[in-house]
Write a structure and sequence with these properties.
homodimer, alpha/beta, Arc Repressor Mutant, subunit A, 7-stranded mixed β-sheet, 8 helices, 9 strands
Chain lengths: 212, 212
């Protein structure tokens, strides 16, 4: 893939979604799927689906549609790194636990291997099969467990305190669910996903629709 | 605002984020902010910020930068509907509770007024100040409480069962956190936000960065 440029963010998101649908199809014994069916499931046009697949160089459309397994594997080759990436969760409140529970046993290439918290009740325990460590051990555990990515699900008021430990530990990617936008040095991939923003966006388009 | 077209999704997201930063500034007694400072907080260029504000028709840049309160109010006029929008949460597991806790007391125009679950232990109780009702009461409660938007935080396997009740009850917007993409009839705004997608996206760009 080294000759290809990085894909647009939205394409990456859709590829991830297509793959999940393809894997679900596989489980149900569906071997082929037409682009317009795949599109329909995701509320997209068939043209959009075909364009996304063209971007990654996939072109084996048959009379029966796409071969589900072939396409799923093709997308995996694009999205996944060769080695599994290990993930740490910072903040094991409701959100941290929801995320951990959600990922457990999904058999993805992405694996939550540790969580971190400042609450003494949680530190040292195992929550949803994931050991919870103290934030003081963060750097050591990141190295020991080869953690590349962290999910930030701590209270927003604590978010800024995590930046330095994250940078120091050599973390490469951050998925930030707090309402505090965080800046990291170049070279660290950050996605800020604030739930308030998502909800305000839905509300805005609901309002627009009512007014039109 | 009726003369303006709907704003691009990404602009709406950023406006929501700017506003949150502006409100935080207000609390700290900061009265003015330069576009490049606002940009820096959000990891954007000043040009991007100015373009977003131009799109909504805001142009009162002073020598001291933007007036924080004036800009916050201006954005609110764009994003918010006149009446508060009431929200229901379907599924009060960890994710539902994380979301509810997160929103409580934030003083937004968006208000979580009810939650729904199928678990008899939860139904009839009050969780984080929000009453939890049975899914069987969904239509009645939506009408009674004037709920416009639902947050879907139930298990993905149950997501599809919620579509019909949501449509029947006249819900206008859905924020779907399950991993099942859902299709609703035209006229209902849907945002599918699957955490797996977000994480796979971060992982992809981490991989790209390592390879480049």
């Amino acid at each position: 893939m080294s000759e290809l440029q990085s894909l647009p963010e939205k394409t990456v998101e859709r590829l991830s979604e297509y793959r999940r649908t393809l894997l679900r199809c596989q489980k149900q014994g569906i071997t082929h799927i037409f682009s317009h069916v795949l599109a329909g499931i995701h509320g997209l046009t068939a043209v959009q689906v075909r364009r996304d697949l063209m971007l990654i160089g996939f072109s084996s459309d048959t009379k029966k549609g796409y071969d589900v397994s072939v396409l799923a594997n093709f997308i995996s080759d694009i999205l996944d790194s060769e080695a599994p990436m290990n993930i740490g969760v910072i903040g094991m409140g409701h959100l941290g636990q929801a995320i951990t529970k959600y990922f457990n046993g999904k058999g993805l290439k992405l694996k939550i291997v540790a969580s971190f918290d400042v609450d003494n009740q949680k530190v040292g325990s195992v929550i949803d099969d994931i050991p919870c460590y103290s934030m003081e051990e963060f750097t050591d555990r990141v190295e020991e467990l080869d953690i590349n990515i962290v999910i930030l699900s701590c209270p927003s008021s604590k978010a800024e305190q995590t930046v330095l430990p994250i940078v120091n530990a050599g973390i490469k990617g951050v998925l930030n669910f707090t309402s505090k936008p965080l800046n990291f040095p170049l070279g660290i991939v950050v996605e800020n996903y604030d739930i308030t923003t998502l909800l305000e966006k839905v509300a805005y388009f609901v309002k627009e629709q009512e007014e039109s």
